[in-house]
Amino acid sequence: MSANMLGHETSPYLLQHKDNPVHWMPWGDEAFDRARKEKKPILLSVGYAACHWCHVMAHESFENPEIAGVMNDLFVNIKVDREERPDLDTIYQSALALLGQSGGWPLTMFLTPEGEPFWGGTYFPPASRYGRPGFPEVLRGVSATYHEEPDKVTRNVTALKDSLDKLAENHSGGAIPPGVFNQVADRLLREVDPLNGGIGSAPKFPQTSLFTLLWHAWKRTGREPYKIAVTNTLGHMCQGGIYDHLGGGFARYSTDDRWLAPHFEKMLYDNAQLIDLLTLVWQETGEPLFRIRVAETVDWVLREMLAEDAGGGRVAGFASTLDADSEGEEGRFYVWSEREIDDILGPDAAVFKSAYDVTRQGNWEGTNILNRTARPELGDDDHEASLARMRAILWQARERRVHPGWDDKVLADWNGLMIAALARSGFVFGRPDWIAAAAAAFDFVTGTMVRDGRLFHTWRRGQLKNPASLDDYANMARGALALYEVTGEPRYLDQTRGWVEVLDRHYWDKDNGGYFFTADDAERLIVRTKTAHDNAVPAGNGTMVGVLARLFNMTGDDAYHQRAEALVQAFSGELTRNFFPLSTLLNNTELLYTAIQLVVVGNRGAADTEALLATVRATSSPSVVMTLLSPETALPEGHPAQGKGMVAGKATAYVCANMTCSAPITDAADLKINLTRK
Fold first, then answer.
1. In whole numbers, what is the pLDDT of the chain averaged over residues?
2. CA pair distance 168, 162, nearest whole angstrom
3. Residue 257 · residue 201 · CB < 8 Å
4. Which of 101, 104, 222, 474 could cross-link 540 (Cys pair, CB 3.0–4.6 Å)?
5. CB-hemisphere CA count at 13 Å for 122?
């Protein structure tokens, strides 16, 4: 076989490589059968559409006929989109780490025809440089080792397989003692940059779940350093170059410690998590900057990140990423010269340049990344309105540039993150249109990305692919419960209960506890992974603790509480080894242990009901689980507020904890006191 076989794939990343002279094949039995038949090792290349270094290696090596010829002669070449197949990416990134190498993308792994890894790396240059060997040299060396030293390959395969199996084992323990939450927060606080915010030094990632943990610690203890760590970090990010000041939305990470120069790709998952955290913190601080950044980021999502069907029409599901590169250059779409600003803004340019750090020499590679780091404080209303008018003019000019690539596949797990963020922020900021967008996306996923009653992971332009992972179900369930909390519509609760049944039937480890990443009837891979470690997105097992905790507090069904406890204990032993990747597990375990059940009974839209809800909107309480009831609706048996309703015809709230409820509350000020009582 001598052809590139990616032309019929749906992934934009795979389609970027369909014209390479490399004889790429998609992951599947055909590729492995060919490797066995030809007695060749497999070269597995994993990346994603918005990955800058993936593009670099593609241009340097995969588009080079001579290097492609070496690849074709010596290997069966498989190309994988990590966002389509996170199960594969997890396994082979872990294998690379076990080889003592730093992970990342592009991931370049060498496998036996049975899919077993024996060596690998990430980016390789076309010739030796950066202290790395040239890719052709690597290819010939790996091929020679595979054919001439099979015992060495077998030893590597066996050692890696054994280690991967051990990595998939969870370390169980008991309940997490209450003091652990503060101990973890104290240790994490020492890693925060006190000047610019963020964790450590360059490069800096948003690390949203870690800062959510610190916010929980502030709410739990009232200790100012926790609060300052979060607000300082968010403030620097919101005014830094990592934020797109013209179009809205945050880039994936900053290459420096000041949040100035990002890798310019924008990911749906980062922006969903930042909307969530900014909203939670705004509820406490009322910081106008955070409200503005939430609104601008949501505007970007609804303007630019709605996916398309096969005919080019918009759908309600959210696309995945925007690329860092355009016209072959990283960041070209986003940066400016001083002359461009002068020509477009004319006499207003001086004010804008002063506010946004625009100079003749530039602040990044001879160009200017717009940022307000030097003068982060917002000006008066007239000043900010003037800057907004100038930003709109520049945005219109920027729209005429060649846009970065758009990966428009719809991923169920990332959509779940954005659905939850839009539902919660829409409620807090009084934006029913955001809640409607969340509901529409939910309906799209449940109506389009389901087959035979089972959720699927990926949809693009009418084509559905890849059975759902744990993360798909967990994040969609989280999104469903967020919609239930802010709308009171029972269908969201019912759908979540159905998804938990699927997870318990097909993903739960009956022997050791915890949910596997893939179902028991999914494709068999070399290892079935199971983890509670967050990466760029929250771990499904950590998220499920929160889903189960909320279900228990909404329904009173103790089976959910028992399953949540079992899930915590399945992974709690790992806290003694490394707690940094376990922040989602910890945040949701705290919810499980300390949840406040809030029930509001009243007619939606009525003044008395809205007065109570206005108090909820202005209260940052991560442990509140809210249920909205119409006067004629009853709570289920087992809920501590079951049988309670309106008092004297007025909208009434009940605040419950540990199966005990407050007296009926009809006054908004009294509700505030009850919600904030420690």
1. 97
2. 10
3. yes
4. 474
5. 17
